[in-house]
Specification:
With about 170 residues, this protein is an alpha+beta fold. It is built from 4 helices and 8 strands; from the N terminus they run αβαβαββββββα. The protein is globular and about 50 Å long.
């Protein structure tokens, strides 16, 4: 990964470099490579005990409702999801490691209504499961659009460019 980030810089790429990766890359070494290269990262975390504690500690009134501009398929059920709740708390990854390897970043968490469970009276929506695994996200600079802009950017699918393979 460090080699790929360095190659992009050597090839003259002057834009923002962003590593978007699945949970196989959620490790201190991958994030350290991004930090050394000055690259942003957005990495799926999976659900380890520390992530579960962080997600379960989000207060109920902190979740913000979001509506997707187009429905997206649920990775578990295949049903279309048109809305969800999201929250982006601060999270320190690798807290059990040395201070230099700890990373404090935003944890992007989305949850959807579980249609198999009945709505709870007085609670409005019966929301109980994550829409996608959480993402550990850290831009090199603060997103000028704020938290809502971060949510929008992670709901979008990458645009296919003319030269991309189908």
């Amino acid at each position: 990964m460090a080699e790929a980030l360095a190659t992009a810089a050597e090839a003259g790429c002057t834009g923002t470099r962003i590593l978007r990766a699945d949970s196989q890359f959620y490790n201190a070494g991958a994030i350290a490579a991004c930090r050394r290269a000055g690259a942003h990262f957005s990495i799926t975390t999976g659900m380890n005990p520390s992530i579960k504690r962080a997600v379960h500690s989000i207060p109920e009134d902190a979740w913000q409702h979001i509506t997707y501009p187009t429905a997206v398929p649920d990775p578990e059920t295949g049903e279309l999801i048109s809305d969800a709740d999201a929250e982006i708390p601060q999270y320190t990854a690798f807290a059990g490691r040395g201070k230099a390897e700890r990373v404090t970043a935003r944890l992007i968490v989305r949850r959807v209504r579980d249609l198999a469970k009945p709505a709870v009276m007085g609670k409005g929506r019966a929301v109980s499961r994550l829409a996608l695994p959480p993402l550990l996200h850290r831009p090199a600079r603060r997103n000028p659009a704020g938290r809502a802009g971060t949510r929008r950017s992670h709901r979008r699918r990458p645009r296919r460019r003319r030269h991309d393979a189908p």
